[in-house]
Design a protein that fits this description.
Keywords: Cell projection, Cilium, Flagellum. Pfam families: FliX. This is Flagellar assembly protein FliX. It comes from Roseibium polysiphoniae. By secondary structure, the chain is mainly alpha-helical. It has a domain of 70 residues. Helices cover 54% and strands 0% of the residues. It contains 4 helices and no strands. α2 runs antiparallel to α3. The longest helix has 27 residues.
Length: 139
């Protein structure tokens, strides 16, 4: 995620003239004496610029291709399970589909992220259980 279009934060400037209430018969006259100094402008958002650098560093550490490959592997396994479920509901399970799923579950893919890898292992375990139920999984 990148944050772009940063504009510096401008400070609020004070007004030089002050209002003063006079006596009942006096006319309004602004005070021309000491002019108040303008307040210091707030510093620009340096913290926000530092955030860009942190986000860029986080992106460098990840390998997006490994993650995409792991996601494709997980989706493929889930699609295979869905096909087997549809075959079971139809009454006939395709041998070719079982062989392809057994071959695919043997190819483990790591994404480099512990959470993603744990989800992949759970999907692979589910596929192994379903193949074992149908007598097609041997470890």
């Amino acid at each position: 995620m990148r944050i772009t279009g940063q504009k510096p934060v401008s400070g609020v400037q004070g007004r030089g003239a002050k209002k003063r209430s006079g006596a009942a018969g006096d006319a309004f006259t602004p005070e021309m004496g000491d002019e108040s100094s303008p307040t210091a402008a707030t510093t620009s958002a340096m913290g926000v610029q530092g955030m860009d650098a942190l986000l860029a560093l986080q992106e460098v550490g990840e390998d997006p291709e490994r993650r995409r490959k792991a996601a494709r592997h997980g989706h493929s396994l889930l699609d295979g399970l869905e096909s087997i479920r549809a075959d079971l509901l139809g009454g006939l399970v395709s041998e070719d589909r079982l062989e392809a799923l057994a071959h695919e579950v043997g190819n483990q893919v790591d994404s480099g992220d512990e959470e993603v890898d744990s989800v992949l292992r759970e999907i692979e375990l589910r596929v192994k259980v379903e193949l074992a139920k149908l007598g097609r999984f041997t470890d």
